[in-house]
Amino acid sequence: MSLSWKSKFRQDMREKLAGLAERVRRAEDREIRRKLVEMVEASGAETVGVYVSLEKEVDTREVIEEWWKQKKRVVVPRVICKEEETGARGRGENGLELAAVKSWEDLEERRWGIMEPRKGLPAVKVDEVEVLVVPGLAFDRKGGRLGRGRGYYDRLLVGAKALKIGLAYSCQVVEEVLLEKHDVRMDAVIDGGGEKGLEAICACEEGRYLLI
């Protein structure tokens, strides 16, 4: 997939998301949340990694609060900016690390308007996380994912043992996402369409990918 093709694909997906009716978005958020809670419960996970949703992303804020109520350990990504650390532009590679949060007070708004764990909170090793919930612009039925182009999540997910779950509105599910060597597949993708029930855990354990 050429860079120009990827850029066009990303722009097309952004336009689809921008045009999604609010009533459809709310209905799909509810369905995705229901399926996600069931899947995580079935997995037995106690430490769950999850992004804090932006305006056009599948909403995760209610499910985060649900997991806090269940006393799960919730960890959230935080951008590591190498330029800030070194004081020199162009040195090092930006990426993500994880930190545990126990309330909204543990988060602060940072670049691109993303809510991230406060700087003083200690990092959590990705190997400690049992489930990782991942955003994306597009997903396919084999776990292929198109991110926003910075590669942050792919670098975080390389070698991760966690169950990797992508969240998508039905308009974000495409026939195929052409992957490059560095791209990491999801173990399951949850979308907001249909009433197919909970099927993903057994399939993931068998090394397959599916949409629920």
Q: What keyword list fits this structure?
A:
two-stranded antiparallel ribbon; seven-stranded mixed beta sheet; Rossmann fold; alpha/beta; 212 residues
Summarize the structure.
With 212 residues, this protein is α/β, with parallel strands linked by helices.
Helix and strand layout, with pairings?
Layout lengths: L2 H16 L3 H22 L3 E4 L10 H9 L3 E8 L1 H5 L8 E7 L5 E3 L5 E3 L5 E2 L6 E4 L3 E2 L5 E2 L5 H6 L5 E6 L19 E4 L8 H6 L7
Parallel strand pairs: 1-2, 1-7, 7-10, 10-11
Antiparallel strand pairs: 2-3, 3-6, 4-5, 8-9
Largest sheet: 7 strands, mixed
Oligomer: single chain
**What is the β-strand count?**
11
Q: What distance separates the N and C termini?
A: 27 Å
Categorize the overall geometry: globular
Q: What is the CA-based Rg, rounded?
A: 17 Å
- The string of secondary-structure elements, in order, is HHEHEHEEEEEEEHEEH
CATH superfamily: NagB/RpiA/CoA transferase-like
Number of helices: 6
Structural class: alpha/beta
Which range best describes the helical content: under 10%, 10-25%, 25-40%, 40-55%, 55-70% or over 70%?
A: 25-40%
Mean pLDDT across every amino acid position: 85
Q: Per CATH, what is the topology? A: Rossmann fold
Counting structural domains, the number is 1
CATH architecture classification: 3-Layer(aba) Sandwich
> What is the strand content?
15-25%
- CATH uppermost class: Alpha Beta
Low-confidence stretches: 84-92, 195-209
Strand order within the widest beta sheet = 6-3-2-1-7-10-11
